[in-house]
# Entry
Amino acid sequence: MEGKIRQAIRNILTGAAILLAAVLAGTVLMTLVYMIPLDQIRKNVANSSDIYDSEGLTNSYIPWLTSTRMDNYTDTIMLSIAAMRREGSALRDAMESKYVYVTIKDMYDDSGYLLRMLELSEDGSSIVVSYARYWHGYLLFLKPLLTVFDISGIRIVNAVFQIVMMFLILMKMAHDDDLRKMIIPLLLITLLINPVSTVLNMQYACIYNIMLVAILVLVRTGIAMSDKYWILFLITGIAVAFFDFLTYPLASLGIPLILLLVKRRDDSKTSIITMIISCLSWGIGYVFMWGSKWVVSDLITGGQTISDALEQITVRTVTDAYEATGIRSDNIIEVFGYNLEAFRDPFSVSLFAAAVIGFVMYVIISKKSFKLTENLLIPLLLIALIPFAWYAVCSNHSAIHFWMTYRNLVLTVMAIAAILVCSVSKKKA
# Structure
């Protein structure tokens, strides 16, 4: 017992050190990236304007497929922040994260929208606003890339990164007796997330890229089988708060967690404990890193970041979404349905049908036996319910932004798929 207490104390101290180091590193790195000269960055942002004019801000490149809905609106904000002229010290500017906001919505579909976000207009159609409640860690990559590429080049770099990462992950899983069975479920949820959209939209790429990195670390190192697995989830939660807006953060938690449980093959009680520790670690990293930005920003700028962030939390969790969606946020069942509806398109239905039929045929033709795995059943079912808990808490956000928050449901799909594939055993006698 005394040894367990000492180990718990060491883990707490280690976690605290990681959290404090992350805040310090985040502050320093953001300050450094704001020192990059802006001339070439602004030129490449301007060169990207025609692309967004042709694509639109929120259009779908396949009208009937929810996963193809673009969020160029947020991407233009990211580019405007990257190109914003310096007003003070690099540290202060990094904490304030200002950009030019176009106030007239009728201009959203006009040509040259992104160009309007480079300079404050003289006709009053735009204002400078601060987006200080987020870290905007994506600027660590976006600003340097913009010194060389416009958005077309950045999308190519993003595509190469995602393809290489997925290749490395699949190669390692193919040679792992425990994880080999999870290749098809992983590919299934990847298609549901839509890797084309994660290439085209920087907004969608953040969580997907973090998820890929976490999975690669999990499958290519020994951390999955060690008692330090919680560190991976702590750092993943930190990374989500640092790089991402509020998109579909649960994918970075649930997909690596499911692979971890399948790899460890612990008994049911131990698997549940592992799941709880992983979720707590991720949640602590996420909440602490995000909240620390508010504190650091207010200390440096003397602004109202904390009050602004708390107000937005209230809006996204309490405020009714009826005006924007036609449904009431307090009707949780409708919020669930709004997100589940994203899978009713012909592509998703066909994908699910093919997966189920293929699985049944495999079991029958290979003459395998099927028996639900008791050691994973409860923890995986609990993971499958996490997105619904998220939707219940963040009802306003999940209703208004269902076209991206539906991706949290890949946890449910992956968990159910894991239950099925892990229940297939050796050939019948």
